[in-house]
Design a protein that fits this description.
By secondary structure, the chain is of the alpha/beta class. The protein has nine helices and 14 strands.
Length: 259
């Protein structure tokens, strides 16, 4: 299989390049990736040209920019339109939902409360309409193993005394980047379409997650500042999707156990 990965310079994109057992072509926007093609998903003509040139059998679309509707929403539309008969997996987010404290299933409709969540929800709606055979994979906080994720870098900064805090009332279902990449590659090949949930099975507050990361990295978790913050409890129920996968979506307490 020939695979095109958008957003290949990001944490998830890089992991897909590392673990994919396929002929993979990375597409990047501004940070070059070896062997890759430059792609601005906001430009429909360029999206069409790149897909025509690469001629992939499958596309995993990870590209987004949190504060840019055109990249996050319109970019997904451009990819869906240009992909035509190509197998498409679109990576979405738990931010399409609002806080409620009980898990969301795949069948539940988006109810975003942030601009980023609204952009991803709009992208989901468009991809479903344009490509009903596509897979939409909602995920949560992505954690790496080499300290490259946003949360891991933040732990190091705050443990070193930089200003900031971890919120105890901000709860998500973190997932390891390798588990997510492996699951997306499986979803590319299995007979499934529509919305899937690919997140960890263990809900954690940002503060508890930070403590696990600090402990793994040999830092003192008690140095991490915390406060309640505004309640933001968004949990994805991934059990239905997990039943389709060989990849086991691990809990943070497992993959962040001390080395």
């Amino acid at each position: 299989m020939r695979l095109l990965v958008t957003g290949a310079a990001g944490l998830l994109g890089r992991e897909l390049l590392r673990v994919a057992p396929h002929d993979v072509v990375p597409a990047y926007h501004s940070q070059p990736v070896p062997g890759g093609v430059q792609l601005d998903v906001r430009r429909p003509e360029q999206v069409r040209d790149v897909i025509r040139e690469v001629a992939p059998d499958g596309i995993i679309h990870t590209a987004y920019k949190q504060d840019d509707w055109a990249t996050t929403a319109t970019g997904a539309v451009n990819v869906a339109l240009a992909a035509e008969e190509v197998r498409l997996v679109f990576v979405s987010t738990d931010a399409v939902f609002g806080s409620r404290g009980t898990p969301y299933r795949e069948s539940e409709q988006p109810c975003p409360t942030t601009p980023y969540g609204a952009a991803k929800a709009a992208a989901e709606t468009a991809v479903c309409a344009l490509r009903p055979d596509a897979v939409i994979a909602r995920t949560s906080l992505i954690i790496g193993s080499d300290g490259a994720s946003v949360e891991e870098r933040r732990v190091r900064r705050l443990a070193a005394g930089e200003p900031g805090t971890f919120y105890t009332a901000n709860i998500r279902c973190p997932i390891h980047v390798t588990d997510l990449a492996s699951a997306l590659l499986e979803l590319l090949l299995v007979d499934v379409a529509g919305v899937t949930h690919v997140a960890g099975p263990e809900p954690l507050s940002r503060h508890d997650l930070g403590r696990l990361i600090a402990t793994r990295d040999g830092l003192d978790p008690d140095t991490l500042p915390s406060e309640p913050g505004a309640l933001s409890d968004i949990r994805l129920d991934s059990r239905s999707t997990q039943s389709l996968l060989h990849t086991r979506l691990r809990a943070p307490s497992e993959f962040l156990s001390a080395r």
